[in-house]
Predict the 3D structure of the following.
Amino acid sequence: MTDLDADIESIATHLTKKQKDFDEVMNLVRDIVRGSAQTITMLHNNDTKSALKTIKSTDKMVADLKKFDADFGYHAKQAYQEYAEARIFLGIKLDHEILSYKKVGVDQESYLMGLMDVMGELKREILEALRENKIKDAEEYFKDMKTIYDGTRSIRFAEAVLNGFRRKQDVARIQLESAGSELLSFKSKRN
C-alpha cells in the first residue's frame, strides 16, 4: 500500500464517521423541531402534563445535539431556536417567567431568535383569553410581550452578526401593536 492509498483510506474512514454524525445531527434537529412544536401546541391547548413530558424528552435530544456543535453547530441553529421558543413559552405559560438564555440552555443568538418567535405565541394566547373573556390573562400576556420587545429593542447588529434578527424584531413589533389594538378594542367594547 502506498502512502497515498493509506491517506485516502484514513480520510475515507474519517469522512464516513463524519457523515454518520451528520445524519444523526439532522435526525436530532428534526425531532427537536417536532418536539418543540408539539410542546407549544399542547400549551395552547392547556395540556400541561403532555407539554412537560414532551419538553423533557426534547431536553434530552438537545443535550445529545450539543455534543456535535463543534462540527455541525450551524446545522443545529434552527433546532435551538425552536427549542428556545418552546422553553420560553413554557416558562411564561406555567410560571409567568421569561427565562434567561442560561436557563433555556441554548446559545445567545438562538435564544434571541426564540424570544422573538414567542411573541406570536403570546399574541395567540391574548386572542384566546379575550375570546374567553379573561381580560386579566390577556393583559398579563401583553405585558410579557411588551417586556420582551422593550428589552430587545436596542439590539441592532449587522445581518452577518445576527442573521435574521431584524426581520423577526420587526414582525414582533407588528404583533405587539396588533395585540395592543385587540386589547384596547376589547376593553372599549366592554365599557
About this structure: The chain has a mean pLDDT of 95. The helical segments are 3-44, 48-66, 69-95, 101-104, 108-131, 135-152, 165-190. The chain has one domain: 15-190. Residues 15-190 form a domain with the Methane Monooxygenase Hydroxylase; Chain G, domain 1 fold (CATH 1.20.58.2140).
